[in-house]
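Dear Dr. L.,

I hope this message finds you well. Following up on our conversation about the binding site, I have prepared a predicted three-dimensional model of the protein together with alpha-D-glucopyranose. For your records, I am including the exact sequence and ligand specification that went into the calculation, followed by the structure tokens. Please feel free to forward this to your student if that is useful.
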Amino acid sequence: MSQDLKTKVYELMLTNRRHKGKHQYTLPSSNSYPYQWLWDSCFHAIILNHYNTEDAKKELLSLVANQFENGMIPHMIYWKPQNKKDFQLINWGKEGTSSITQPPMIAYGVWEIFQKDRDINFLKSIYPYIYHFYKYLLNERDPHEKHLIGIMNPDESGEDNSPRFDLALGLSPTQTLQENTKRRFKLIKQNISCRFDAPFCMRNFFWVKDVPFNSIMVLNLRLLSQIAQKIGKKGDAIYFEKKSDEITKAMRELMLEDGIFWSTYGEDYKKIKVKTWGIFAPLFAKMLTQREAKKLVKNHLLNKKEFWTDYPIPTVSLNDPSFDPKGFWRGPIWIATNWFIYKGLLNYGFKDVAEDIKRSSENLIQESGFREQFNPLTGEGQGAQNFTWGGLIIDMLEN
Ligand code: GLC
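The resulting structure of the complex is given below.
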């Protein structure tokens, strides 16, 4: 790898670093995203771990510092609220943080750090927070005990306007961004009216069991189980491993059809058959058999009518009516989704395809810089500038 790229990533992480009291965290982009976000901070920990494990630990410790009493960790922390006109300074019905969460990548970040420096004390210090967080997801987000974790707002998936949520929101596949934003703001009001009480909010307003969220949960519970084991909590270790297996089984039963895992919505698990990068998320948690994985990659990932564009991987299949190469989560490439797919491919030994994705991601960054997303047809950079997720390229290049 060019030392140059490694240095550039580090400079970006330092430029976006902020402090509040004893807390240290990183902004995804200082102009466009001036707060701390949940899954972003997990990506930051993964990136920082390649430079300095202490900084990676600080990132996660500041993330968990605002945990709610019920165990939820909010997806946005407004450490230093900016001016009132900032559209991300949303009224979530409380001060200082949002009231929803994001994909639970924290155990993954913690485990990566532990792999580097074997610091048991760090595991012990962060364990109570993550224990309660995953327990919250298992208890509050699965009121019917079907072993699938629900989200109560599309933003909890991290893919705000993804077409996976159109049906549940009652929007058409060719909606405008304005229509989507208006509908999501209405949902926040509805969420406030049900006081973010997850079972109640999900039943009444928006109830999606999302494939990437649940796949991330499966792998993270497995790692949480290993973390528990390391610090001598044998009972917890068995419990979390069991929960991971239960979600895997439920996903196979309720989401899998013709080789594809589909997100579902509503109480009766209606499948949302919209092809997005999310169909590859189960590879990340190694939930498919070798045969199933091979078929998925051959028929869909490497299919030029679906995901194998000149600049892979679009977040939405080219032949889906919602595909829009400039549509935020409705088509553009995001380096984090490439990273998830890259890791998933390596789980199954698909080294060549993984290598192609790594090279393509590196080229996008070298050509257009650390942009938020990239156009999958032209490779052009789009959205926020100096956006940290590009730093995940270091984790692809060094592993
Ligand atoms: C956007 C993304 C979300 C991310 C946030 C901060 O809202 O959709 O996934 O966490 O920006 O980068």
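In brief: The pocket of alpha-D-glucopyranose is lined by residues 28, 33, 37, 39-40, 158, 160 (CB under 6 Å).

With kind regards,
A. P.
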